[in-house]
Amino acid sequence: MTNQNLVVANDMVVQLDYTLTLANGEIYDSSDETGPLEYIQGQGHIISGLEEALYGMAVGDEKDVVVTPDLGYGEYDPEAVQTLPLDVFPPDMELEPGMAIDLYDEDTDEEVEAYVAEVDEDSVVVDFNHPLAGETLNFHVKVVGVRPATDSELDHGHVHSDGHSH
Fold first, then answer.
1. Mind listing the pLDDT tens digit for each residue in 17-61?
2. Closest by alpha carbon to 39, among 20, 12, 57?
3. How far apart are CA 141 and CA 60, in angstroms?
4. Which residue among 26, 50, 91, 118 has its CA within the 20 to 30 Å range from the CA of 43?
């Protein structure tokens, strides 16, 4: 069986070229710089609105996919913004707006990712929303590779590039 007949389906490793454009026309992200995105279909590795749209696509197929916030990074939650005192951060940490930081949540005993919204003299405004929360995402995608995931990849839940495990 050749790979020519394979289409995107659950447990297939998909290589995807993509460009993500926001509603204002700004290109937010593109595989031009990083090379194709490689992931296992059906495992929730990519946002559901994009993953759903890829089923049945074959190598060489292209399409435009519009993902609304409910199928992307969720709606923007204004409650998910906090102001923290500057002294909770290490003194040598250079905080810049837009920067992703991991914060420890004592309630859930887990690390959560947040983004620096602004830095003031003695406080930092931290936003727990994903930078793309509330955004409608316009993807142009092209499938450049499809192959069955190996048992090892399925066990680990991620792609092993070059056959090495991470």
1. 999 999 999 999 999 988 999 999 999 999 999 999 999 999 999
2. 12
3. 10
4. 26
Q: What are the DSSP calls for 39-81, one per residue?
A: EETTTTSS-HHHHHHHTT-BTT-EEEEEE-GGGTT----GGGE
Residue 114 and residue 132: Cα distance in Å, rounded? 12
Contact status, residue 19 vs residue 133, Cβ threshold 8 Å:
no
Q: Determine if residue 78 is left, alpha or beta; phi over 0 gives left, psi from -120 to 50 gives alpha, anything else beta.
A: alpha
pTM: 0.81
How far are the Cα atoms of 83, 108, 155 from residue 117, in angstroms, in the given order? 9, 23, 38
What is the CB-side half-sphere exposure of residue 57 using CA atoms within 13 A?
Answer: 25
Contact (CB, 8 A) for 86 and 124: yes
Structure tokens at 14: 């998909």
